[in-house]
Predict the structure.
Amino acid sequence: MEQDVKQPGYAAGADAPVEHDNNNVSTSKIWQVITSSSVGTVIEWYDFYIFGSLATIISTLYFPKTNPLAALLATLAAFAVGFVVRPFGAIVFGRIGDMVGRKYTFLLTLLLMGGSTFAIGLVPTFASIGVMAPILLFLLRVVQGLALGGEYGGAATYVAEHAPDNRRGYYTSFIQTTATIGLFVSIAVLIGTRLAVGDEAFKIWGWRIPFLLSGFLVVASYYIRRRLDESPLFAKAKAEGTTSKSPLRDSFVEPQNRKLVLLALFGATMGQGVVWYTGQFYAYFFLQTVLKIEQIPASIILCVALLLATPFFIYFGSLSDRIGRKRIIMTGLLCGAVFTIPIFYGLKQFAGPAVEKTAATVDAAGVAVPAVLVANNPNMLGLIVLIFFLVLFVTMAYGPIAAYLVELFPTKVRYTSLSVPYHIGNGIFGGLVPLISTAMVAWAAAQPSGFLQEHSIYFGLVYPVVIALITFIIGSLYMKDSRNVRIMD
C-alpha cells in the first residue's frame, strides 16, 4: 500500500501549529455545508443538461430544417460551446474565489446560471426571428458555461475545507453525485412535462417549461446558500493576509504549482471527463439517436442505471480515504478504456432492430421529411445492466477526484488551481464527446463499404477510449497517491 503524502511543497504537516483545525468541525456543521453546497450544484447541473437532453427538439426549432444532420450538429455545437468556455469561467471565478471568497463566488455563479437558463426558455424560434435565434442560444450557452466553470471548484473547495482530513474523500464524494443527480432530475422533469402536456404540445412549447422552472429552483437555492459562512480556511488566510494577490500567476507561472495543474489535467481529469460523458450523456444520446429507442424508455433505462450506480460515488469516495485516491481513479479509467466499446456493441444487440414508425413524407413547404424509425421491443433489463456498468466506471474515476484535486493545491490558489484542470478535462475533453463522436460516426458512415463503414456507429467511441487510455498511462506513471493530507497552509 502506498504511503500517505503531505501536500507537495505547501502543506505544513501534522506538527504545524494552526488556529483552525478542520478535524474538529462538528458533524452537523459538515452536513449543513454539504447540503447547502449540493443543492445549488444539483440545480446548476440540471440547468446545464436540460439543453443537451432536448438537443433533437432544439435542432428543429432553432436551425433550418433543410439538413437535419447539420441542424443536429449545430445544436450539439451550441451544447459544446458551454463546455468549451468552462475553463475561462474557472479562471475568472477561480480568481474571484481565491481573492474575495468561496461563498460570494458560488452565489454569483448560481445566479448567472439560473438567469441564463430561464432566458433560454424565452428565446423565440428560428421561424420567428431567423438567425438571431441560434445567436441568442449560443450567447446564453456561453453564460451558462462560464458560470458552471466557477461553480464546481467553489462547491468542492468549500466542502473540502470543512471536512476532516481522514474523511475528505467521503464528504466530498457527495458533491461528486450532484452532476449525476442533476442529469437524473433534468430527465425526470423532461419526462414528467412531456407526459403532462403530450408529445405534440411538448415539441411546440412544452419543452420551455423545464427551462423556466429553473428560475424558481435558483431562487430557493440562493436563499439557502446566503445563510452559509465563509470557508474557515479561507477566512483564516484572509485574516492573516496570506491570500494570493495574483491567483493566476501563482497557479500557472509558479513552476511547482504549474506542474501540479498539468498533472491534474493529463493524469486524472482528462480521462475522467471522457469516461463521465461517455458513460452517462453520450450513452443516453446513443440510445435515442443511433439505436432509435424512444425518449421515455431511453430515459427509464438511464435513470434506473443512475439510481443503482449513484451510491457507488459515496462508496469509492469513502474507500479512497482508506486505500488512496490513485488506484481507484486509475481502475475506473482502465475499465472505461477496455470495456466501453464492447458494452456499446452489447447495447446494439439488446436494442434490437429498428422499424418504421411513420413513413417518409414531404411537408407543406416541399421539404422531405425522413421516415421515423423506432427500436422494436428493446431488452430493457439488458440495457439497464450495461448502462449500469458504464456509470460504475464513472463512479470509480469521479468519486475520489474532488478530494485528490483539493489535496494537490494550497488554500491561497486552491479555487483557481483546482477549477482550471477540472474544467479543461471535463469541459473540453469530456464535454466535446457528443459532438466529436457524432462527427466521427458521420464520417465513418460516409466511407466506402468495408469494416469502417459497417461498424460506423461505434467509431465515435475511439475518441473517449484513446483519451482514457492516455490518461491512465500518464496517471499511473506520474500521479502520487494521497489521503489524510492536512490541507492547512
Remarks:
- The longest strand covers residues 354-358.
- DSSP finds 23 helices and four strands in the chain.
